[in-house]
């Protein structure tokens, strides 16, 4: 089974800050890595797929990079509406979600 | 507009069974892989099962294998999850989710990113 870890958690930042979340896979998953945003009481929302592809309609302040075992998710300028928990997810071998990173405003 | 509406959740005793349904609309259901993902209260997301468009590829998380059965009826635009031998640790909100539709050379990936989700249905396993 592929295990996913995320850091940091939680994460506190100010509006306008650049926010970076890292995700590490326990083995090489190529670029089969997705990022989801989940706000309280809501269903998750796919933001980025295959490590770096932004889903249509998602603001360009969100970006992703990485391959192999190490991945990064970035919000270039944190907005109040970005308060949420962010999950990475691999789908190279079945599906595994990371534990999530809760982002809030400092 | 893509819509996924789950139903069938509720309170069930340990060892009991429940069948969840997910009604899909707003897209060609028979062309997309579908998934179940669950979230225990206050916890993270946990993948449950995936099924491709024509049910030829079916996958389960280890902890659900042998107890849960995913199926779909493309004529009814519906996805199902039959859950047997339920345990307290199966208590969660169960989401159905549609695959992104990633295909290459006429073949679609059996497991895909999930870009549309339902609102979820709560399953509570308790005596």
Characteristic key phrases:
heterodimer, A: 106 residues, mainly beta, 7-stranded mixed β-sheet, 4-stranded antiparallel β-sheet, globular, B: 127 residues
Molecular structure report:
The complex is a heterodimer of chains A (106) and B (127). Chain A has strands spanning 4-7, 11-13, 19-25, 33-38, 45-49, 53-54, 62-67, 70-75, 84-90, 96-97, 101-105. By secondary structure, chain A is mostly beta strands. In chain A, a hairpin with a 5-residue loop joins strand 9 (84-90) and strand 10 (96-97). The model of chain A has no long low-confidence stretch (mean pLDDT 97). With 127 residues, chain B is mainly beta. In chain B, the strands form 3 sheets. In chain B, strands 2, 4, 5, 6, 9, 12 and 13 form a 7-stranded mixed beta sheet that branches. In chain B, strands 1-3-8-7 form a 4-stranded antiparallel beta sheet, with no helix packed on it. The A-B interface holds A 1, 34, 36, 38, 43-46, 49-50, 55, 85, 87, 89, 91, 94-100 and B 35, 37, 44-47, 50, 59, 61-62, 95, 97, 100, 102, 111-115, 117-120.
Main sheet summary of chain A: 7 strands, mixed
| Helix content class of chain A | under 10%
Q: Termini distance of chain B? A: 40 Å
User: How would you characterize the largest beta sheet of chain B?
Assistant: 7 strands, mixed
> Which protein chains make the most extensive interface, counting residues with beta carbons within 8 Å of the other chain's beta carbons?
A-B, 22 and 23 residues
Shape estimate of chain A: globular
Poorly predicted ranges of chain A? none
Give the H and E element order of chain A. Answer: EEEEEEEEEEE
Strand content of the residues of chain A, in percent?
over 45%
Number of strands of chain A: 11
Number of continuous helical runs of chain B: 0
Return the structural class of chain A. Answer: mainly beta
Output the radius of gyration of chain B. 14 Å
The proportion of residues in beta strands of chain B is over 45%
Residue-averaged pLDDT of chain A: 97
């Amino acid at each position: 089974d592929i295990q996913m870890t995320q850091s940091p958690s939680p994460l506190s930042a100010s509006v306008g800050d650049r926010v970076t979340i890292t995700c590490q896979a326990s083995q090489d998953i190529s670029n089969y890595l997705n990022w989801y945003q989940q706000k309280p009481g809501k269903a998750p929302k796919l933001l980025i797929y295959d490590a770096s592809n932004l889903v249509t309609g998602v603001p360009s302040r969100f970006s992703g990079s990485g391959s192999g075992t190490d991945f990064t998710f970035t919000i270039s300028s944190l907005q109040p509406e970005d308060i949420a928990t962010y999950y990475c997810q691999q789908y190279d071998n079945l599906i595994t979600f990371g534990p999530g990173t809760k982002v809030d405003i400092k | 507009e893509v819509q996924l509406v789950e139903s069938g959740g509720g309170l069930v005793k340990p060892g009991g069974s429940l069948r969840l349904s997910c009604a899909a609309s707003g897209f060609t259901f028979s062309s997309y892989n579908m998934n179940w993902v669950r979230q225990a209260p206050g916890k993270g997301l946990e993948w449950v099962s995936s099924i491709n468009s024509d049910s030829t590829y079916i996958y389960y998380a280890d902890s659900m294998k042998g107890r849960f059965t995913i199926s779909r009826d493309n004529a009814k635009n519906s996805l199902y999850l039959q859950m047997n031998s339920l345990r307290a640790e199966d208590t969660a909100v169960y989401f159905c989710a549609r695959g992104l539709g990633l295909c290459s050379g006429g073949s679609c990936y059996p497991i895909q990113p999930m870009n549309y989700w339902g609102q979820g249905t709560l399953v509570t396993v308790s005596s």
